[in-house]
Design a protein that fits this description.
Helices cover 40% and strands 15% of the residues. With 297 residues, it is α/β, with parallel strands linked by helices. It has a single domain, classed as 3-Layer(aba) Sandwich (Rossmann fold). An eight-stranded mixed sheet has the order 3-2-1-4-5-6-7-8, sandwiched between helices. Helix 4 crosses helix 9. It is globular and about 45 Å long. It starts with a strand and ends in a 10-residue tail after the last helix. It binds NADP nicotinamide-adenine-dinucleotide phosphate (NAP). The site of NADP nicotinamide-adenine-dinucleotide phosphate has 25 residues, from helix 1.
Length: 297
């Protein structure tokens, strides 16, 4: 029986993905990493499948990630990194003093996946959720400004106290997810595949909740208007497509970008080995990963 470790199963499209996995793949164990204790029992009650367990983990803290990863006794044949956030500004910091968006959306996955590397079975599949806003050519209808990549040491510093800066940091962090996946692909053994995944625009999740009541209301109105258009996907459908990416046939070459279930090229800016390797090295430094030790992380 295989085990899939999933982050971000508590709400939004990830909640639907987790319930889909439990309803349609009762033979696979689902291990959820979540901030609030009690999620595994909630998922079991809701789906009638008790083949689910949890480890409490706040991805905004390296110490918590290290403790949580040490509680995983593998083997894992699936990893679904769905947790992610968008902040109202770039002023909030992780427990380690890094800008929250980059800290959770990029650094947390760098650390967690490095810690879990010895736990992966072969074959195994790793999917990290990105977004089409990583692409500066993507039309987000003015909701999210294009990414602005920089030396990752700069990207982890707090920035402007504006909504635009917060949303731009989100787009930039999702470019970082694609870079991370490319760098990881070069290091994983054949048989252990890694993908970035774009769910498309999914109105009705909690993604914009840091924008406060007014911001949420604005996004809520826009979301309701967009949900009827083909550019938007409902949280239910987005969750099902994400779950199927974990359980369906091999989606494509390791390192690929999967958009709403289909492999397509990511942005031209996202294929940049120099940036990918710089991100890997700086993320190692920031996360305190020592490559000289026996177990690399
Ligand atoms: N909605 C969209 O239009 C859209 C578009 C493209 C990509 N995405 C991506 O899809 C993924 C899911 O987003 P969503 O829209 O479903 O948003 P959501 O409803 O806000 O769900 C986000 C999930 O991430 C978890 N999370 C956030 N910060 C965390 C932390 N510090 N530690 C542990 N878990 C944390 C949340 O857990 P809590 O319940 O504890 O907060 C929740 O389970 C994200 O990666 C997002 O960037 C969304």
């Amino acid at each position: 029986m295989g085990t899939t470790l999933m982050t971000g199963a508590s709400r939004g499209l990830g909640r639907h993905a987790a319930e889909h996995l439990l309803r349609h793949h009762p033979d696979r164990h689902l291990l959820v990493f979540n901030r609030r204790p009690g999620l595994a029992a909630e998922l079991a009650d809701r789906t009638g499948n008790r083949n689910v367990s949890e480890v409490v983990c706040d991805l905004g803290s390296f110490a918590d990630i290290r403790r949580a990863a040490s509680e995983v006794d593998g083997p894992l044949d699936g990893f679904l990194g769905n947790a992610g956030l968008q902040m109202a500004t770039t002023r909030k910091l992780t427990a380690d003093g890094h800008e929250m968006t980059f800290g959770v959306n990029v650094l947390a996955y760098h650390l967690l996946l490095n810690l879990l590397m010895p736990r992966f079975a072969n074959p195994a599949r790793i999917v990290v959720v990105g977004s089409d806003v990583h692409d500066s050519a993507h039309n987000s209808m003015g909701l999210v400004p294009p990414p602005r990549w920089d030396d990752p040491r700069e990207l982890v510093k707090p920035g402007e106290d504006t909504g635009k800066a917060g949303r731009r940091a989100y787009a930039t962090s999702k470019l970082g997810v694609v870079y991370l996946v490319h760098a990881l692909r070069r290091r994983l053994p054949e048989g252990v595949d890694v993908y970035s995944y774009n769910p498309g625009l999914v109105p009705g999740t909690g993604l914009t909740r840091d924008a406060g009541r007014i911001g949420q209301a604005v996004f809520g109105v826009i979301g309701k208007a967009l949900v009827a258009l083909p550019v938007a996907t409902s949280p239910e459908k987005a969750g099902r497509l994400l779950a199927e990416t974990m359980t369906g046939p091999r989606p494509g070459e390791s390192g690929s970008y999967i958009s709403r279930g289909e492999v397509i090229p990511s942005s031209s800016e996202s294929y940049d080995e120099r940036r990918e390797e710089e991100l890997w090295a700086v993320a190692d430094e920031l996360c305190g990963i020592s490559r000289t030790s026996h177990r690399s992380a």
